[in-house]
Amino acid sequence: MKFRRSLYLLTIAILVFCCSLADAQTDIKSRIVVQVPRDGKLARTRIDSVFIASQSVLWGTAGGVFVENADGFGTWWTSKNAPFKQEEFVAVAARNGEIWIGVRNPAAGQGIFLLDGSTWTRFHPSLNEMLSDLVNCILVDGKERVWIGYEERGIDRYIGEGYGKTTLRLFGGIKVKAGLLPGSVNALTDAGGMIWAGTNSGLCRFNPESEHKAKFESWTFGKNFPDQAVWALIPYGDGRVAAGTDQGFVLPDGAGWKLIGMKDGLSSMPIKALCSEKGRVWVGHTNGLQVYEDGKLSALLYTPDLLPAQSVRCLAARVLPDGSSRIYVGTEAGARVFSIP
User: Is 18 among the domain residues?
Assistant: First the structure.
């Protein structure tokens, strides 16, 4: 009898320990160290976009584009020292020492600006053969090619090569007639050697090596995808992607897809900001941040000691050589960086 009681108590103790360990593993907030940017302007201004380059971090903000160095200091590019007007810097990217910037407001666009060293170049449909000036997103893929998604008319790839005797071909367009889903191209990413596009009509992908003869594979609501509009994309799993949508975020689930929404503990939707590191998915929305880890969503991460504002507009993640992670968070009222051992 005593043996059975002892065995019962030991079992309970083991279960309590395991539950405590699981709670510790999912309590992401206790592991976050918050870093406030050293640049005061970056710490308190609206953040539109963020991109992690090899030696710096690019921030598109309401106050201009900030190129942040490893020491936390850097260079501001504004209408005073760059050719763009101060509007919304919806996309920033970098490749081989170049900086690419998409500038627009809700109704009009300025096109793309390229900083190559100290020289600025503007690309616009009135100047070049771009499909549109309403830039939504910029992707630098695994082969350092630049892709641009627009509010209308499709996707451009920057070519920058001459053809014929007199014409300089700078952009190659991919349109709906080639198989691209119709509507706004809201997000682009590179996964499994394929270019994935998130649109108002769903998710699609194509082989970038096929150029203008691209053959698209598509996933749409009511057919083979659990939601309609796709707003954010990140590589996730073996050659697949995770997508932010109107009703939550979508993850690969075998040969199909799984929607994680309000019934699963999501605090707000739509999801327009995602990033991932070490198997975790960071989900940004108008109520703050949540983390999806081990099949579960964390509690809402929003307190004044974590974020300067609830609405999260953009995210990026980097895993450091020592195995720790940094999460770059852009909000309506400034930037923050989370460090996690």
Answer: no
